[in-house]
């Protein structure tokens, strides 16, 4: 999932500081980037003085280099081994035309090396660089420590988080989501604005559910591609008591959904599943949704487009699958715990005891025999990042909330996909969700990535955010 990312690198310099600091920094930062499998794009040490950026001519050379790799560069790292030239950094970014996240790193001074031959003054220079970027209207990210050596574990974490920010920003600015079918009539909660999403670069590709079901019904159990998908399903999850007829229906639907995803180059999907699919086709689509989510093509039920967009964002931040869940039940009298639930479409990563089953609640109205394909499984203790993206249509904005907690092994005797979440000040969170008109769906990810989402959503995408 975590493909090799290319970062543009700007090494700042100022002529009255020792040149050796720039040469040493170049060697050190390249070693750090290599260890993290990051491809650096920077000036050669012969193209400017030691490959640093100081003058306007230096900035033009660096900007031209970045332009050549514009499609490749996902972010820019600014390295300040000394005070640096704030104009050189700002002009490089302006001239390059890049609109990507920027991380500012500055070296610390040593107390015994504050003489003219060895002092850096990067503490001060970083403030000047940030001031100029602010004036230029260029967004940037700061390290946890104001000054930090590239060899410091703190910087490794800064860089890792920054890569997550780069993935989220690039991914969401070009996301393509498939909406399969109409929103179920009883789910006003998942309404959203395609136009607001499109303004952010997020495209929604729609298809009528009848087209998907019609194509599925044209397939037969004897078609090789159906047999292939049956094998995939059997290798993905135990099939439990599901009859062969139901498994064939699930496999045929899986074939058509995968074609739709591939033909339209989609990153995620949201599918109508309540209740037309069961009434008109005779199975649940949960197994296919789980398989797609596990394979990094997140899929949400009830045509929850902004729900699956949240799944995709959290996947980009963490590099691991996400799951759409209901804020569903209180957990006894514990005010900081609740039950997370869905009929059964969570990625396999959340379900070590996964098995194809039925959806009993849905079955009360459509017949349990028409709900095979729902998955059963209990999520064990693991880290938790939760959150939700939503379009506030009357105000014309995208808003989001997110936070961190943990999933627990507390006893839970029920069916479907289920988990127990523990979140500090759960009652305050529910107050916020209800007062601000958020959906009953939330997304969970087994990570600690709230800081990445805050930086990506709030700083670079300009969305309204609440971090719990």
TrEMBL record:
An example Gene Ontology molecular-function term: L-fucose isomerase activity
Keywords: Carbohydrate metabolism, Isomerase
GO cellular component: cytoplasm
Recorded superkingdom: Bacteria
Transmembrane segments: none
Entry's Gene Ontology BP terms: fucose metabolic process
One matching Pfam family: Fucose_iso_C
Domain L-fucose isomerase C-terminal: 340-465
Keyword DNA-binding attached: no
Alphabetical list of InterPro entries matching this protein: Fuc_isomerase_C (IPR015888), Fucose_isomerase_N/cen_sf (IPR009015)
Protein name: L-fucose isomerase-like protein
